[in-house]
Amino acid sequence: QLQLVESGGGLVQPGGSLRLSCAASGFTLDYYAIGWFRQAPGKEREAVLCVSSSNGRSYYSDSAKGRFTISRDNAKKTMFLQMNSLKPEDTAVYYCAVGGYCSGLTGYSGANYWGKGTLVTVSA
User: Fold this and answer.
1) 3-class DSSP state for residue 77?
2) How far is residue 30's CA from residue 27's CA, in Å, rounded to a whole number?
3) CA-CA distance, 55 to 102, in Å (whole number)?
4) Helix or strand run (H / E) with residue 14
5) Do strands 10-12 and 118-122 pair parallel, antiparallel, or not at all (unpaired)?
6) 29 CB contacts (<8 Å, ≥6 apart)?
């Protein structure tokens, strides 16, 4: 069964850090673009950041630049989202995604696999 499972969400104070993980089962991450989306209450889902599998193309939303980083451990079939200097406006359900296309100009599109999401709440 092909699936992605996120973990690491929770409550964090403003200015704090959180590391989300996304474990793949049934397939490997090696040859896919990977990325993270989020959906805040009452808002549409947005791409946060992504990275391609081959040439290192990456995309960072304005909100992610300088604060969030994405990484992967292909051997462990796991990807990560490191979030620093968190703000209340970062509160959202975060989804990992695999496949599709990551462009530094246009962002992330066409993901083939999605996790079910993990809630991140930034509040004092």
Assistant:
1) coil
2) 9
3) 10
4) none
5) parallel
6) 53, 72, 74, 77, 78, 79, 98
pLDDT tens, 73-94? 989 999 999 999 999 999 999 9
Tokens of 91: 């509160």
The whole-number pLDDT of residue 1 equals 80
What is the four-CA torsion angle of 84, 16, 116, 104, rounded to 10 degrees?
A: -20
Closest CA to 92 of 47, 32, 34, 31: 47
As a whole number of angstroms, the distance between CA 35 and CA 73 comes to 13
Q: Residue holding tokens 């992610």?
A: 64
Residue 54 confidence (pLDDT): 79
Residues in the chain with pLDDT values less than 70:
none
Residue 111 token pair = 């993901």
What's the pLDDT score for residue 56?
78
Sign of CA dihedral 110, 33, 90, 121: positive
97, 111 Cβ separation under 8 angstroms:
yes
Which tokens belong to 57? 């193309």
